[in-house]
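Translate sequence into structure tokens.
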Amino acid sequence: MFGIFYTHLLANPFESKRKYLNQIPIKSQHKKPVITIISDNEFTELTDFLVPYGILKRADISELYALAPERGKVQLFPALAVEVDTSFAIFDKEHPEGADIVIVPALHNSQNPTIINWLKKQNEMGATFIGICDGVWTLAYSGLLDKREATGHWYAKDKLIKTFPNTNWTKNKRYVHDDRIITTSGVTASIPISLALIDTLAGKKKANETAILYGVESWDPNHNSDRFEFNWNHYFLATKNYLSFWNHEIIGIPIDEGMDEVSLALVADAYARTYRTKVSSIAVQTKQVKLKSGISIYPDRTNSQNDGINVKVSIPNDRKSFPLLKETLDIIQKRYGETTMEFVSLQMEFPIP
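Result follows.
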């Protein structure tokens, strides 16, 4: 049923040869752009973090770093956990001149002083920032959005306007570029902004080649944020699903070496947002599993610990991420109902009719 609902992402990317982002300055000493994707060790949004990391790593156009205040385990939300090998201090030692681009996903603690101070330091050294979804809160608390045009997740719009009145909050755009600040709408905007970044840094041919790998045919900023709104059915359903704990299910996702982290993130994120499910990663052993990009994920359980798993969801290596997300939403609708599927799509700011 989803084939007709995604025309804004299925337009021909060669209809326009213009780049959707402005030119991004790269430091003269960098042979490749130095891009960092930051995280907080305690709760970083799953798709905001893993999707751009996976897409940019596969494109191989930059020197790419996943960072955290402290190296080690990073708990993602609403599911999964990864290992981040590079701390802020390690990166600063390797690159005292700073990063070219800093990507900021949604962080549970958007006012973490360690992160905010590091962002301010990178700003002083001329970095360009990309705030994905509620990552804009961290940028705003860092003072980087003052007198800037910006966007964010549709659900946070009114609160953002009230909390940060000196920012010009824009709607109906997947992403907005103002000087050295780029901000995006909700969760799934991590896909088009990653491709738009590749387009700007390496050209449309490279962006198109990368998009094909994920089953995406357009990364333009066009978006209708006015269509996203929770109604009372969604609020009632969320409360009902959350409180009906006896009906909750554990979704087990087997993880293997070399698995595509973009597909994993999108599928796990969708299932975890039903308020009916808990997503659990399953591996052969308890040791971390290295994904396609090289980042490692912590298994929640091993194959021998299958008690309580209600449904196993496999992610085929030969499937493309974007169509797989649409199929996952279709399965959620069939299993949990149309309102639950809508509720998930609205949270991920993924357009449905």
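Note: Residues 2-225 form a domain with the Rossmann fold fold (CATH 3.40.50.880).
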